[in-house]
Amino acid sequence: MRKKLFILSSLLLSCSGFISFGQTADEIISKYINATGGLEKIKAVKTEKTVLTIETGGMTINQTIYGKRPNMFREETLLQGKTSLQIFNGTEGWVVNPFTGRETVESMPEDDIKEMKIQADLDGELIDYAKKGFKVSYEGEEDVDGAMAYKLKLITDKNDVTNFFIDKETNYLVKQSFKQKNEDGSEVESVVLFSNFKTVEGLTKPYELESSSTYMGQIYKTPIKITSIEINKEMADDLFKKPEIKN
Amino acid sequence: MRKYCLLLWLGIIIPNSIFSQTAFDAKIFGDIRARHLGPSVMSGRVACIDGVNNKQGILYVGTAGGGIWKTLDFGVTYKPVFEKHNQSIGAICIDQAHPDTIWAGTGETWTRNSVSVGDGIYKSTDGGENWKKLGLEKTERISKIYIHPKDNNIVYAAAPGALWNDSEDRGLYKTTDGGVTWKKILYINPQTGISDLAVDPTNPEIIYAAAWEFRRKAYSFNSGGKNGGIYKSIDGGTTWKKLSNGIPTGNLGRIDLAVSPADASVLYATIESKETAIYRSSDKGETWVKTGTHNYIIERPFYFAKLIADPKDPNRIYRAGLTMLVSTDGGKSFTPFRGGAHGDYHDLWINPNNTDNIVAVTDGGVYTSYDRGSHFIQHKNLPVGQFYHVAFDNEENYNVYGGLQDNGSWMGPSRTLTGSISNRNWSTVGWGDGFWVVPDPADNNFVYSESQGGELQRYNKTTKTGKSIKPLEMAGQPRYRYNWNTPICTSPTNKNKLYYAAQYLFVSNNKGDSWEKISPDLTTNDPSKQKQEDSGGLTSDNSSAENHCTIYTISESPLNEKIVWVGTDDGNVQLTKDGGKTWSNLVKNIKELPAFAWVSTIEASRFNEGTAYVTFDNHTQGDINAYVYKTTDFGLTWARLGASTIKGYCHVVREDFKNKNLLFVGSEFGLFVSLDGGIQWAQLDHNNNVPNVAIRDIAIHPTTNDLILATHGRGIMIIDDLTSIRLLTEEVINSKFYAFPLKPYFYPEFGFDAISFGDDENGFVNPKSGFVLTYYLQKKHMNGDFYVEVLDDKKQLISTKTASKRKGINLLEIDLQIKAPKMPTGPSPAYAGFYGAPLKAGNYQLKVVKETDTTFIPFTIIHNPKSQHSAADKDARHELMMKLYNQCNEFTYTVNSHVDLRDKLKVLEKELVTNEKVKKMLVEYADKLETQRKLVVNTKEGLINDGNNYLRDKLSNVYIQVVSYDGRPSATQFEKSTSFEKDIKDNANAYAAVDTKHLNNLNIALKAAGKPELALMSRAEFDKLK
What we know:
The structure holds two protein chains of two kinds.
Chain A: H1 2-12, H2 23-36, H3 39-43, E1 47-55, E2 60-68, E3 72-79, E4 82-88, E5 93-96, E6 105-107, H4 110-119, E7 135-144, E8 147-155, E9 161-167, E10 173-181, E11 187-200, E12 203-215, E13 218-231
Antiparallel strand pairs in A: 1-2, 1-13, 2-3, 3-4, 4-5, 5-6, 7-8, 8-9, 9-10, 10-11, 11-12, 12-13
Chain B: H1 2-16, E1 35-38, E2 46-51, E3 59-63, E4 68-71, E5 79-80, E6 89-94, E7 102-106, E8 121-124, E9 132-133, E10 144-147, E11 155-159, E12 171-175, E13 183-186, E14 192-199, E15 207-217, E16 220-223, E17 229-233, E18 241-243, E19 255-260, E20 263-271, E21 277-281, E22 289-292, H2 295-298, E23 307-309, E24 317-319, E25 325-327, E26 335-336, E27 345-350, E28 358-362, E29 365-369, E30 377-378, E31 391-392, E32 399-403, E33 409-413, E34 420-421, E35 427-430, E36 437-439, E37 446-451, E38 455-460, E39 465-468, E40 488-490, E41 498-501, E42 505-508, E43 516-517, E44 536-537, E45 551-557, E46 560-568, E47 573-576, E48 584-585, E49 598-604, E50 612-617, E51 627-631, E52 639-641, E53 650-655, E54 663-667, E55 670-674, E56 682-684, E57 695-700, E58 707-711, E59 716-719, H3 723-726, H4 730-733, E60 737-739, E61 764-765, E62 771-777, E63 786-791, E64 797-802, E65 808-814, E66 817-818, E67 837-838, E68 842-850, E69 853-861, H5 871-911, H6 916-936, H7 951-963, H8 971-1008, H9 1019-1024
Parallel strand pairs in B: 16-44
Antiparallel strand pairs in B: 1-59, 2-3, 3-4, 4-5, 6-7, 7-8, 8-9, 10-11, 11-12, 12-13, 14-15, 15-16, 15-17, 17-18, 19-20, 20-21, 21-22, 23-24, 24-25, 25-26, 27-28, 28-29, 29-30, 31-32, 32-33, 33-35, 34-61, 36-37, 37-38, 38-39, 40-41, 41-42, 42-43, 45-46, 46-47, 47-48, 49-50, 50-51, 51-52, 53-54, ...
Helix pairs in contact in B: 5-6, 5-7, 5-8, 6-8, 7-8
């Protein structure tokens, strides 16, 4: 669960941008940036706070995600009066999971730190991807729920692959798919769909997400609804420090 | 010709169609997904295997009809990785220097009668996630791939090629540019392909290739010819010489080769000839010696030929066969494997790091041994069974029945009452190769099943015994000719009537104890096609697989039992309208149809006596086109359907029983659907969880409306409840949004199995059991609100669900429950906080908001009509559940409102740090509140909590007990809830006593200190909290 939320939350923070590499891929990224609000506006984002709810069976999980340049990240998940935390200050990370029976601050595992470095990037993977050591290739058009999209394949310097799907008509990012690695090395494919785009501070953002995974050929979906996005509101650096546990 | 066809279509199809103008494609099926039932218990035929040498555990297995499966853990778990492509695999080769690069050759090369057809060679560079087709499309079969160890752009592919016809596309191919272009570097003639390839491990320029002349017809098989032999090249395939010194003379059949990785001068060959045996060369093929043989080497060399040399010991060689043989003396003598595994071995992977560890692939899946085949572990998680047919019964949670290639006849549940459908839910109802398996409509204790060549039995499910009931010819009668896959057919009009067929049609009214012949010979009875004793070529092989001039399909009209259609394997379409007294062969009326095309199904219509659908499978004459026809006038005229859109030769056509325009066709390459009586067709493909697997049979369950598929390589699949597809009328397709009618919903009642499975035994999912709103969207919904609210009968909001937004059919699962009760915070969760309360039976409605449009859809929740519990008991449960639900909330309100107050006290304590008097009051009050909380909420760290010490956990436990049982709660539970009333009240009173003692005085002091007064959170405020 922790890992799932981690991935979800990091996606919420990703906008995207580009630097020239493969011609066609860059054209698509350029269109996407324009549709999102333009590189200038994307780069002008210094802080971003997103509040969302995750709909599951009999309960609602509330989550707040904080992002601040450079590479600071905090995720609070409220459940049954307890808050679980994931915090990353740009180099170090901590995790608090109060439902393990003991409320302690644990250091974020090394693998998660690597992932967090990418996820905490307010620009998202696509912006300046070459500078970041990533590669992006255009993989052709693919259907996303009945509308055609450009598929971009991004490979990180750690060889992790994420596919980005840019809607042909609107040039919005409508889908991401990636492999989530379990501790034992096995992999689970995760897909996130984005919809209900609205403009906030000149940036186009999805306000609804659908996270899905496949088990035995059946798709299991989790809808996520964003209730608010605040951009460039004051955000204290203390939020990204190692947390202290209240008793 | 073109004009004629046009007229035919105008004349026949359009009047029968309700909408011929509205185009549709596969996107219309949206969220529809097949549910795979496996099973894996018997698995299925696996043709080849390869493993990564330097990363232990990664294996790829290529199956006969179920694609490629990858394991990362030596077979504990598997994943299919070839879903979008041809499912018949002939060869897999991993680039060991770059193990994420894998080549796959499609088209199995174990050329039995039921073998499929490949469509070229594929390459993956990402560990099997994505594949690109790189040519050789017309080779049909690829038996071996070799990647140059130093330059992986150089790849060789051996293609035995087409089985059923001459072809110039067979031979040995080489690419030097990674598959962009190919050169045929060894070609013999249109009848002779390359069955195997071996390369010198120390010098990749030295290549050995085996040439094989072979041909299968619908009624015979030949292996062997004068062009067979072994060739050698020492220049990477530029020039070749045919080896002869020590190779048997005369006609040669299938040959397989193996160079010893431990000694490159040692080369083995299994050579089918008049003296079929193992041959060995110790000088790189220049001279050969016949070393030894064994009965299992002589038997069926077209089906068993693989030779595998041990990586470390040049004298150890394995030969696949009915069982796997091993020689440890350089091929002189052979010993069969002793380990318990399905017979019919096809390939073997030897772990190069531990050669005692081998993985064998067979007609019954994959097996691992750690002692070179003395003992085996079955991989029980590879659902690649090759079903020929499927049937169902009418039990609650109906069973499906079917027979498989070399794996008998089976039955298993379409759903279970526990978590999933597992191997242990399946049971056998017949042996041998299984085909038709049909439950007796008059008595579900009996099942009619068969094995190859017409061996029919009546199986008793209770006693697990079978009685042979095959019709037998009597003195003076011609020999009865039964197909390999003989049709068993029950009557749709008379549940006591059973049909069976040889070249004659038989009927029985006493469960097969006696039979009446109701037709003359309905086949062409061509004597030239009845020489099966001569079949096999160099090695005689008469297993009944080539039996011909037989009846293959039977269909009685559901509207009139005297109308019976019969199709034969030699191309006759026969009809009787008088219960068998007279017959007409109608095939002459069918245009564009090649002569003698095999009639694979006839489907008599449920809507019109004169209407029938027929599929022809002409691949045994080298023609893989789709031939689907419809008649509406008892076969006088026929219209061809789907000729340009259905891919591959067809096995089955079925007509829906409610919508006459809804048709399904199963071909060798997938499932095709028409919504308009056959004018347009779309494939339900991997997007709908139906890979391009051969669909051999299709059934529609009359109660559940499930579409049941017999696949030849991926087991049984079910598309649950095709009602929405059935209702895709022109009006619906042209609507922007259309909600399909809701049936009254009832909560399913499940049991449980307290069994822990290992990861090596997979379960298959049950149908989704929640409440689903099914709707159609003409276009994907991208922007604006789109959600669904559940409202009660007073239009009060119960819950909200974000809508699914895809084009086509959307299946939105909506939780029909009140959100879980709030529970006080503790170190471990109170599980009641995760379980919502199911809604009471009654009237509700959905409010669908799509941007500015709002639609109200009423629906009802009813008591499960098949429940073991009475409505009164369920109402009693609901009443107690809600009482406990409210008690949880009431208790939590008391605790949490005081936790909130405590936290405020602590804030004030910091703010008034210099005001000793008030600070003391604050500390004392907070401590008292905490003392009371610790009496009712566990505050000790640790996950393990027996739940009986604190009121929070006691409430949670009893609430969950009542939620998780659908019937009347126990008297104890009722009593306990009453007892909780006192507990909750006592707790509230205790808190109130603390408040009384402290709050007023504190507020006076706070006022004096200039701070606002404190008040307890109200219940209304608490209820508003999320």
